Amino acid sequence: MKIKSKVLIIAGSDSSGGAGIQADIKTVTALGGYAMTAITAVTAQNTKGVKTVIPIKPKEIKKQILYTCKDIKPDTIKIGMLHSTQVINSVVKALNKIKITKIVLDPVMVAKGGTRLVSQSAIMTLKNFLIKKTYLITPNIPEAEVLTNMKIKNLRDMIYAAKILLNFGAKNVLLKGGHKKSKYIEDILLNKKEIKIFKNKKIKTRNTHGTGCTLSSSIATFLSCGKPLKKSCELGIKYVNQAIGSNPNYGKGHGPINHLNSIIIKKKFK
Ligand SMILES: Nc1ncnc2c1ncn2[C@@H]1O[C@H](COP(=O)(O)OP(=O)(O)OP(=O)(O)O)[C@@H](O)[C@H]1O
Ligand SMILES: [Mg+2]
Q: Which residue, 38, 44, 35, is CA-closest to 17?
């Protein structure tokens, strides 16, 4: 298989391999991209929860981004967990230097087991500085609630919250509906010109560890090889859906999904 494009991932490590930088690398690779990384934190976790989070120094995170990009320029950047104000500031500084505009931000705040991963002031910095730089932001419902200070109960609320996020300066918003308790999941893509709703049947499983990381990385990969945004989101959602559907059922908690299902997607969407 020939490598199609390059993606830089800025995110935390998940020792259990289902989410974080491990999920990101698997996704980019499975979809034919070349993955590079800047690690922001090292977590000890399994499918049942997070034990510890060891932050990497902001200076070191910035160095990983700048030194890597100086040599191999990424086509897109995917940003995951940034746990502190200092980290966000140093990532913003690095991004200003490398001038890549296709940035996908997954504003990770809480792990699937409920552990809060970032500080309150980090959320403010994200809102005031980083969101403005993003091409696409992909919050889930609880994250969108924190960022917009509103409660999201239905599709109308989701659209309203997405509009607020656009006003923060993101070019596009994909608000994920995975947390809604319903038979169908609606993910909504919104920008100044249009709204697109992706509707899928909710798969009955507790094995959804890393769905959000995987989705943002897959969209970043599709974007990196030149696919338009709407198509990239459609393909990314499909990839995650198939990955959930074929999950290996590992672990005693929220198990990982199957990142190796790209073969099916390739045949279908060539
Ligand atoms: N049970 C499910 N069946 C089908 N699709 C799902 C299911 N759960 C999540 N998804 C899809 O997975 C993608 C990620 O959404 P989700 O809301 O789970 O993100 P997230 O909460 O950020 O995930 P994470 O907890 O891994 O960070 C979305 O496209 C969503 O529709
Ligand atoms: Mg998430």
A: 44
Whether the pLDDT of residue 179 is over 90: the answer is no
Atom of ligand 1 nearest to the CA of 209: 26
Domain coordinates in residue numbering, the chain:
5-262
pLDDT digits (tens, 9 = 90+) for 44-77: 999 999 999 999 999 999 999 999 999 999 999 9
Residue range 5-262 forms a domain whose CATH class is alpha beta
Measured CA angle at 203 (ends 144, 236), to 5 deg:
60
Residue where the block lists tokens 């399994």: 46
Neighbours of 77 (CB within 10 A): 29
Indicate the SS3 state at residue 267: helix
Among the listed residues 76, 38, 107, 65, the one whose alpha carbon sits nearest the alpha carbon of residue 221:
76
Q: Of 212, 214, 233, 255, which residue is the catalytic one?
A: 212
Nearest ligand 1 atom to the CA of 138 is: 22
CA angle 175, 211, 259 (to 5 degrees): 135
Q: Residue with the nearest Cα to atom 24 of ligand 1?
A: 212
177 carries an active-site annotation: no
Q: Is the CB of 218 under 6 A from ligand 1?
A: no
Hey, whose CA ends up nearest to atom 25 of ligand 1?
112
